[in-house]
Amino acid sequence: MEPGTETLTNRHRRYGASDVAVIVPVYNEKPVLADVLAELFEVFDSVICVDDASTDGSADVGAAMGAVVVRHPINLGAGAAMQTGLTYALRHTQAQVFVTFDADGQHRTEDAVALVDAVLAGDAEAALGSRFMGGGHEVPPFRRIVLRGAVLFTRATTGLAVTDAHCGLRALSRSAAERIDIRLRGMAHASELMSIMARSGISFVELPVYVRYTSYSRSKGQSSINAVNVLADVLLQGVYRRR
Amino acid sequence: MTIQILLISAFAVLALAGARLGESPRDMAVKRLSVLVVFVLGSVAVIFPDVVTRVAQAVGVGRGTDLVLYLLVVVSALVWLGTYKRLSRFDDQLTQLARAHAILAAESEQRDTDDARRFGDA
Predict the structure, then answer these.
(1) What is the pLDDT of residue A122?
(2) Which residues on B lie below 8 Å from A50 (Cβ)?
(3) Which of A50, A88, A240 has its CB closest to that of B88?
(4) For residues A108 and A50, what is the distance between their CA atoms, to the nearest angstrom?
(5) Nearest-CA neighbor of A69 among A85, A83, A56?
(6) CA A43 to chain centre
(7) Which A residues, 209 through 228, put their C-beta within 8 Å of a C-beta on chain B?
(8) Dihedrals phi, psi of A163, to nearest 5 degrees
(9) Is A239 an interface residue toward B (CB < 8 Å)?
């Protein structure tokens, strides 16, 4: 039983388009996308799907559900999709807070709400979800070891005291989003975001979130060996991809 | 021992210096001059093999051909790094271009949706 399950219809607060825009990068998530978007639309008025050139018609599902769909003409990667979403949202919405939210059903809307509230309350410019703050989690054991390694690496290279460096559920204030410019296209974008936050002095808080590792998301998810690519991208960017 | 220190430090210095070269006219010129230097050194090695042998012995390497091989490895590695840097730049430009396209298309789509809403569907 997941901790903290409360039905969303109990929440009376809605977040209008001038408050919050939710960015959902999408790559071939047709089986679950409609449900994910439906859950978000119970609370958020403004949802932007960034379709990373899906081949299964995910983009049309997003449009049919009433989300704004920004379509990459070619597949660029999760990092690029997130940045496209932020760039579009900054320019075309009045939102003061932007949420990054996975399309595969792993993230819970109520956790997004908690992160948004923290930023709106002025606790920090960014609220980051963490799977390792004692809220219980379903993270598979080997993946957990790799993620802890990522946390140690992030702490060592950026000095930021995070407990989870790679959770895709975040809320960013407009001022924070304006200072973010992600260049890494793949999964390493999360590490790059940490570096940018340290460099730009973006304040943040971490809140516990519960990530659902369903059999669907596990079958689609990246293998832990991708950590090699993340490390390579981060190290090479540090030396060879400086602006 | 001398040759190892020389090779490793030369590689480290050149790799880090190369990482900082951009696309400005000055940096492009530096890169091109470096290529020229490598060609000149290579030509010297071919035309004056004794020179290579003497340099090799001076740094503690047995044969001239061994020294040439070591230098070739260092040059190759630097070329790989340079190529990676250039490909990364293309990658970034491609991403920016694709992003601009995606956003333009979305803006156009949103305008069409707004028009349909305002003026009613046909």
Answers:
(1) 95
(2) 102
(3) A240
(4) 19
(5) A85
(6) 17
(7) none
(8) -105, -15
(9) yes
> Encoding tokens for residue A168?
């895709």
The tens digit of pLDDT for each residue in A44-80 reads 999 999 999 999 999 999 999 999 999 999 999 999 9
- Tell me the C-alpha distance between A126 and A170, whole Å: 7
* A84: nearest Cα among B17, B30, B97, B121: B97
Going by C-alpha positions, the residue among A118, A71, A68, A76 that lies closest to residue A97 is A118
- Predicted confidence (pLDDT) per residue in B49-82, tens digit: 899 999 888 888 888 888 889 999 999 999 999 9
Cβ neighbours, 10 Å, residue A199: 10
Cα(B122)–Cα(B115) distance, rounded to whole angstroms?
11
* Helix, strand, coil tally for chain A in percent (to 5): 45, 15, 40
Compute CA distances A182 → A89, A116, A169, whole Å.
Answer: 15, 21, 16
Write the pLDDT tens digit of every residue in A157-184: 889 999 998 999 999 999 999 999 999 9
Complex ipTM: 0.89
Q: What's at B30, amino acid-wise?
A: V
Q: Evaluate if residue B122 carries a pLDDT over 90.
A: no
Distance in angstroms (rounded) separating the CA atoms of residues A7 and A18: 24
The residues of B whose Cβ lies within 8 A of any Cβ of A are: 16, 19-20, 81, 84-85, 88, 91-92, 95, 98-99, 101-103, 105-107, 109-110
Q: Is the distance from CB of A86 to CB of A25 less than 8 angstroms?
A: no
Place of tokens 């091989």: B69
